[in-house]
Amino acid sequence: MSSPTDTSVKETFFVASFTKFSDVISYNVTITSRHAKVPVKVLATNSGIVNVENLTGSTLYYVSVKRENSAGEVGKDSSPTSVHTLPGAPSIILIQPLSTSVYIGFQLRNYARVSEWAIQYREVGAVAVPTIVTTSSAPYFQFWLSNIEPDTQYEIRARVSQLYGTNTSSETAISSWQIFATAQRESDGIRTKRENA
Predict the structure, then answer these.
(1) Angle at 44 between CA 41 and CA 55, to 5 degrees
(2) pLDDT of residue 166
(3) Could you tell me if 76 and 97 lie in one domain?
(4) Given Cys at both, which of 9, 64, 122, 153 links 80, Cβ 3.0 to 4.6 Å?
(5) pLDDT attached to residue 49
(6) Residue 171, Cβ neighbours under 10 Å: how many?
(7) What is the mean pLDDT of residues 80-87?
């Protein structure tokens, strides 16, 4: 039996397809996660395609298939193929907002796979399309967002936009909006103190 083909890969879902034979009444598709001793799923189907659902994001799975004919004879498992589900939405940690910049830390299962993040931000209450910044030159777990306005409230969110060894992905989940406020310019703070003196 030839190995299955895995397509339409999402965070918790993919499609496994394989060659269908006329004398086969059932196919057993086995899905095992990396380092697991037992399969996480064994799916039976009589077609050459099966939807594999309710998986864990950013996880490596191995997929194999075997067939059973009308005489009850069960074949051997095919050679496994591997599929890596997409990552979910990251958690964003905003540290030390300065007057025109903020440090962003990303938390995500297996974030070492990430080669680029897409960050969206805008002033709170703005109806304009958010500004989008990509982190192609940054480490995979952090980024300094700069050139923003002082003493301003922003909302910000992010998603994985590229994984190492793959093309840019537009199908990864995006985080919820978070709000942060930039600090006053130091000169503005000094002027306020003088005015209040």
Answers:
(1) 30
(2) 73
(3) no
(4) 64
(5) 92
(6) 11
(7) 93
